[in-house]
Design brief:
heterodimer; A: 321 residues; mainly alpha; ABC transporter involved in vitamin B12 uptake, BtuC; two-stranded antiparallel ribbon; 77% helix; 2% strand; globular; B: 508 residues; alpha/beta; Rossmann fold; 6-stranded mixed beta sheet; 18 helices; 24 strands; 34% helix
Chain lengths: 321, 508
C-alpha cells in the first residue's frame, strides 16, 4: 500500500530496465563516439543475429516449462549438414539450407524422444543431447578440425554477407524469425497453450491440451530455428567449426531470463528476449570499445547483468503490489 | 458472566481504496475458550485477523490483549503480548527434522554450539504433552502426514511457552477427515492449558464440534455472537452467515428431459476398482459416494483419461467413445471440474480471461491468431453469467477466493458446451454463498440436458444435489440409491458400510 514517495525511485522502478539500458547507451556513447556511429550500431544488431535466433528457440522451450541446453548442438548440426551437403554432394544453396534444417531437426527429435517418450526432465535430456552431440561432432571431424568450403555458392554466402535494401541479410532473417515467434508465442492460440502447459502442466492436461504433441513440436521447432543460426554462422566464415554453438548457450539462457524478468508476470516472452539479446550485445560491444582488459570484461558484464536483473525484479514486485 | 477477555477488538473499521472491509466490527475471546469465527469469503475474517496481528492498521477501534490496550498494534507488540498465529500454509522445510523445524529461527545454544539434544527433548515433550502425539524429533518433515506437519507448525509457534492466545486460520483445510481428529485433539489440549483459541474455518461441522462460542461476520460487520454452541447450531450459523436457510442452499430439482446419455461398462483400472458399470441419462445428476480408498477418485481419473483403464468401454447415446486421454475426453464433450482446482483446475499464474478461454481457443481466433477483443468479450459475458468476483478479466486467478476459482473452472467448460460434466468435490474450500451458486449451476446444466456426475465426500451435498447416488466401496459399486426419500444418515450408513446398501436399494 505504502508507495515510495521518492519520485526518482518511482521512475527507476517503473522503467527500471529501460533506464539502465539508456544509461549504458549514454555512457558508452560518451566514452567512445565510435559507439554511436551508424556502422557500429548496425554491427551490434548484425553481431547479435545468431544469438537472437538461438535465444528465440530457447524462449520457446523455456515457455514450455523446460530448458534446452542443446541449442548449440542444433546450430552445429545445421552448419555441418549444410556445408557437407555443398562440399561433398554438390547441392545448391537451397538444397544445402534444407539439409541444414533437417540436420538441426534431428537434435530436436532426439530431445523430444527423451523428454516425451522416456519422460526425462528437459534439463537432463538436453544435457545428454549436448554431450552426445558434441562427441558426434568430434568423431565426425576426427577431433574437431573445421570443415571449410572455400567455393561456397554465392547465394549461400549471402545468407550472412549479403544485404536486402542495405540491411544485412542475417539481421533480416533474425527479424523475420522474431516476428514469427512473436505471433506464435504471444498472439496465437498455440502460444497460449504453450504458456499454459509451461506454467501448470497438470491443469493444462485437464483442460484438454495435448501437451505431448506440443512438447514434440516445440523441441523440433526450436532446433530447426537454431539450425537457421547454424546456416548463417557457416555462411559467415565459409566453414563448419565443430562445437562453435556452445559459446552462445549461456548468453541465450541469460537473454531469455532477462526477458522473463522484464515481463510483468515473469513469463518468458519474445519482446523480452529481444531486449535481453540487444542489451547483451550492446554491453559487449560497448565494453570492447572502452578498450578494457579482456580479462575483466566478463566480470563487468556479469555485474551489469546482475544489477539490471535486480532492478527488473524490484520493478516486477512494485508492479504487483 | 465475567467481562474478562483474552483479547478483544472493538469498533474496528478498516477501509481499503473503494471497499470498507470492516465496519464497526468487534470480536471478543475469553480466556480458555475455543472461539469460532465464521463468515463467507469477503466477510472480513482475514482482515480482522490481520488487524489483530498488527499487519493492518484500522481507521477506528480498540485492540486489547489481556489487560493491555495496544495503540497502535504492531506485529512485534502483538507477539510480545502472547498472541500466536497458525497460518493456513505450513511453511515448513521438507528436509528439516521435526526438531529443526520447531526451533527454526529460535535455536538454543548450549556450551558447545547448538543444544541439539536439549532442543530435541523439548520438541518431543511439547508435542507429547501439549499436543498429544508421540513423534521422534529426528524424523524429517517430508516423511510426516499433513496433520503431523500441522502439529509441528503449532509447536513451532508455541514452544517458547509465552502464548496466551492462538489464532488458527483454516487449520484443517488440507487435511483428510481422519487427520482432522488429530488436530482437533491437539486444540482441545491447548484449551485445557488455559490458552484462548480463535478458530477460523469454513467447515461448520468442525466449528460446532470444537467451539464454545462463535462470532459470525457478514459484510464486514459482526452479525451475531453465539454463546451456546451445540451440534445443532449449524443451520443457525449458516442463516447468520448468508442471511438465509440451509435448505435453500440446494436448488429445486426441476423436471428435466430424459434420454440415454453417457454410460460406462465394465470399467477397471486393474488396481483400485473393478467392473464399474454406471450410466447417466441426459438431464440427470448422478452422485458418486464413497470413502477415501473406495476407488472413487481413481474412477473419476480413469473416466477422464487421466489414468489408463485396464478394460471397459464408454458410450454416449449408444455410440462407442474412445477415451484414452483427457484431450480425447474433452473432444468427446466430456469435461472435468477436478477436486484439486489449484493444481489441476486452473493455471494459477494466468488471468481469468486466459483460464476461461483455455479450452475454446479456436473459437476466438482467425488462422490461429487470437482475437483479443473476442476473448475479452466472451470472458466478460462469462464473468457476468457466473458472477465471478472481482469482475476483472485480467485478474490473476491465484488471487481469487476458492469459490470464484471454481467458477472460473466452470466458466471454461460452460463455454465449451460439453455434453457430460464431471464434478469432483465441487465445493471443497468454497464458502457457503458460492456453494449455493455452484449447486444452482449444476442444476442448470442438468436442466439444459447435460449428463452430470458429482463425486463427493459430503453426503449432505450429494443428497441435496443429485437424483441418484452410486455408492462405492472397496473398488466396486455396491448400490445405486435414488435420493428421493433418502436421508443423509442412511447415505452415510451405506457409504461407511454400517448397513448393507444392497438391502437399501432393494427396499426403495
Amino acid at each position: 500500500m505504502d508507495r515510495t514517495q521518492n519520485p526518482i525511485v518511482n521512475i527507476l522502478l517503473r522503467f527500471g530496465f529501460l533506464v539502465v539500458f539508456a544509461g549504458f547507451f549514454i555512457l558508452f556513447a560518451a566514452w567512445n563516439p565510435v559507439f554511436l556511429q551508424g556502422g557500429n550500431l548496425l554491427n551490434i544488431v548484425e553481431g547479435a543475429s545468431v544469438l537472437m535466433i538461438l535465444a528465440l528457440g530457447m524462449t520457446l522451450i523455456v515457455a514450455t516449462g523446460g530448458i534446452d541446453l542443446s541449442v548449440g548442438i542444433a546450430l552445429d548440426f545445421g552448419a555441418a549438414f549444410a556445408v557437407v551437403a555443398m562440399k561433398s554432394y554438390g547441392l545448391d544453396w537451397f538444397g544445402a539450407a534444407c539439409a541444414g534444417l533437417i540436420g538441426g531437426s534431428l537434435v530436436g527429435i532426439f530431445n523430444a524422444i527423451l523428454v516425451v517418450g522416456l519422460r526425462i526432465s528437459p534439463f537432463l535430456a538436453t544435457l545428454s543431447t549436448f554431450f552426445i552431440g558434441s562427441s558426434v561432432q568430434r568423431i565426425f571431424t576426427n577431433g574437431g578440425g573445421p570443415i571449410s568450403h572455400r567455393r561456397m555458392p554465392e547465394e549461400f554466402r549471402n545468407l550472412a554477407l549479403g544485404d536486402i535494401f542495405g540491411v544485412p541479410t542475417e539481421a533480416v532473417i533474425a527479424f523475420v524469425l522474431v516476428v514469427i515467434y512473436f505471433l506464435i508465442l504471444e498472439r496465437s492460440i498455440w502460444g497460449r497453450r504453450i504458456h499454459a502447459m509451461g506454467m501448470q502442466r497438470s491443469a493444462s492436461i485437464v483442460a484438454g491440451i495435448r501437451v505431448n504433441r506440443i512438447l514434440i513440436l516445440c523441441f523440433v521447432g526450436a532446433s530447426v530455428t537454431c539450425a537457421v543460426a547454424g546456416l548463417i554462422a557457416a555462411a559467415n566464415i565459409r566453414m563448419f567449426t565443430p562445437l562453435s554453438g556452445f559459446s552462445y548457450l549461456l548468453d541465450a539462457i541469460a537473454a531469455v531470463f532477462i526477458g522473463a524478468a522484464l515481463h510483468p508476470r515473469g513469463r518468458p516472452n519474445v519482446p523480452g528476449t529481444v531486449a535481453g539479446v540487444l542489451f547483451l550485445g550492446m554491453v559487449a560491444n560497448g565494453l570492447n570499445l572502452m578498450g578494457l582488459n579482456f580479462n575483466t570484461k566478463d566480470a563487468l558484464q556479469g555485474i551489469i547483468l546482475l544489477s539490471a536483473l535486480a532492478l527488473a525484479v524490484a520493478q516486477q514486485r512494485a508492479r504487483n503490489r | 458472566m465475567s467481562d474478562l477477555s483474552a483479547f478483544s477488538l472493538q469498533g474496528i473499521t478498516k477501509e481499503f481504496p473503494g471497499v470498507r472491509a470492516l465496519e464497526d466490527a468487534s470480536l471478543k475471546v475469553r480466556p480458555g475458550e475455543v472461539h469460532g469465527l465464521v463468515g463467507e469469503n469477503g466477510a472480513g475474517k482475514s482482515t480482522v485477523i490481520k488487524v489483530l496481528a498488527g499487519i493492518y492498521r484500522p481507521e477506528a477501534g480498540n485492540i486489547t490483549i489481556g489487560t493491555q490496550t495496544l495503540s497502535p498494534a504492531t506485529p512485534e507488540s502483538v507477539h510480545a503480548a502472547g498472541v500466536r498465529f497458525i497460518h493456513q500454509e505450513l511453511h515448513l522445510v521438507p528436509h528439516f527434522t521435526i526438531t529443526e523445524s520447531v526451533f527454526l529461527g529460535q535455536e538454543r545454544v548450549g556450551r558447545f554450539g547448538l543444544d541439539t539434544a536439549g532442543m530435541r527433548a523439548d520438541a518431543e515433550a511439547f508435542l507429547r504433552d501439549m499436543l498429544g502425539v508421540t513423534l521422534p524429533g529426528n524424523r524429517l518433515i517430508r516423511d510426516l502426514g499433513t496433520a503431523e506437519r500441522k502439529l509441528v507448525q503449532i509447536a513451532r509457534a508455541l514452544i517458547d511457552g509465552a502464548a496466551k492466545v492462538v489464532v488458527f486460520d483454516e487449520p484443517t483445510a488440507p487435511l483428510a477427515s481422519d487427520e482432522v481428529d488429530t488436530v482437533m485433539r491437539a486444540i482441545r489440549r491447548l484449551k485445557e492449558q488455559g490458552i484462548a483459541i480463535l478458530y477460523v474455518s469454513h467447515y461448520l461441522s468442525e466449528i460446532t464440534d470444537i467451539c464454545d462460542r462463535v462470532t459470525v461476520f457478514r459484510q464486514g460487520k459482526t452479525v451475531g455472537v453465539f454463546d451456546d454452541i451445540t451440534d445443532a447450531s449449524g443451520s443457525d450459523l449458516v442463516y447468520a452467515m448468508v442471511g438465509r436457510d440451509i435448505a435453500d442452499m440446494f436448488p429445486k430439482k426441476g423436471t428435466r428431459q430424459t434420454g440415454t446419455g453417457f454410460a460406462i461398462d465394465g470399467l477397471s483400472d486393474g488396481k483400485t476398482f473393478e467392473g464399474i458399470s454406471i450410466s447417466v441419462g441426459k438431464g440427470e445428476i448422478l452422485g458418486i459416494a464413497g470413502l477415501i480408498g473406495s476407488g472413487r477418485e481413481e474412477l473419476i481419473d480413469t473416466i477422464y483419461g487421466l489414468t489408463k483403464a485396464g478394460s471397459g468401454s464408454f458410450t454416449f447415446e449408444g455410440q462407442p467413445l474412445q477415451i484414452k486421454s483427457a484431450a480425447q475426453a474433452v473432444r468427446a464433450g466430456i469435461v472435468l471440474v477436478p477436486r484439486d482446482r489449484r493444481h489441476d483446475g486452473l493455471v494459477l499464474p494466468m488471468t481469468v480471461a486466459e483460464n476461461t478461454t483455455l479450452a475454446t481457443l479456436e473459437r476466438n481466433a482467425t488462422f490461429g491468431l487470437e482475437n483479443r477483443r473476442a476473448v475479452s468479450n466472451s470472458t466478460e459475458a462469462q464473468i457476468k453469467a457466473l458472477d465471478i468476483r472481482p469482475p476483472n478479466p485480467n485478474a490473476v486467478t491465484r488471487l481469487l477466493s476458492g469459490g470464484n476459482q471454481q467458477k472460473v473452472v466452470l466458466a471454461r467448460w460452460m463455454a465449451k458446451s460439453a455434453r457430460v460434466f464431471i464434478f469432483d468435490e465441487p465445493t471443497v474450500g468454497v464458502d457457503v454463498g458460492a456453494k449455493a451458486e455452484i449447486y444452482q449451476l449444476i442444476e442448470d446444466l442438468a436442466a439444459g440436458g447435460a449428463c452430470v456426475i458429482v463425486s463427493s465426500s459430503d453426503p449432505v451435498e450429494l443428497q441435496g444435489v443429485c437424483d441418484r447416488i452410486a455408492v462405492m466401496m472397496r473398488g466396486a459399486i455396491i448400490a445405486e440409491l435414488p435420493t428421493e426419500g433418502l436421508s443423509v444418515d442412511t447415505l452415510v450408513a451405506a457409504t461407511t458400510g454400517a448397513v448393507d446398501a444392497r438391502e437399501l436399494a432393494d427396499a426403495s
